[in-house]
C-alpha cells in the first residue's frame, strides 16, 4: 500500500474510536446505512531538506434511513477528529492535523429513502523518508 492509503486507514481507525453506527469504508459513496471516506485531492510541498508536508482533502459521507442519525453521526465524527490533540504516526508518516473544510450538509434522499449527508476534511501530514 502507498503512504496515502496508510494515512487514510489511520484516519478511519481514529474516527472509528468514536463508535459510529457503521464501519467506515473507503470510497466516495457509502452503502445503505453506511459511512465512507475517500481522497479527493492533495497538495505536496517538498522542502529544501526533502521533508514533505502534505495536505489531502477527503470526502466524508454518511447514509442512513433515519435523517437524524445520518446528520448527528457525521457531525459527531467531525467534532471528534477536529478536537484531537494527538494524531497517528507510523514509520512513513506523521499526521499533524485534521480539520473540517466542508461541514456536514444534506445532499439528498434516495429512492430507497436513505438520507445522504456529505462533508469534507483536510488531513495534514508529513512524509517520513530516508
Structure write-up:
With 130 residues, the chain is of the alpha+beta class. The protein has a single domain, classed as STM4215-like, CATH 3.30.2000.30. The chain is built from 2 helices and 5 strands. Helix 1 (3-16) crosses helix 2 (67-82). The longest helix has 16 residues, at 67-82. The radius of gyration is 15 Å and the shape is elongated. The protein starts with a helix and ends with a strand. 25% of the residues are buried. The mean pLDDT is 92.
Question: What is the compact description of this entry?
Answer:
With 130 residues, the protein is α+β, with helices and mostly antiparallel strands. It has helices spanning 3-16, 67-82; strands at residues 24-26, 35-46, 52-64, 93-109, 115-127. Helix 1 (3-16) crosses helix 2 (67-82).
Decide which structural class fits the backbone: alpha+beta
Low-confidence stretches: none
Please name the CATH architecture.
2-Layer Sandwich
Shape: elongated
Largest sheet: 5 strands, mixed
- Gyration radius, rounded: 15 Å
The termini sit apart by: 18 Å
The SSE string, one letter per element, is HEEEHEE
Strand portion: 35-45%
The tally of helices reads 2
Tally of discrete structural domains: 1
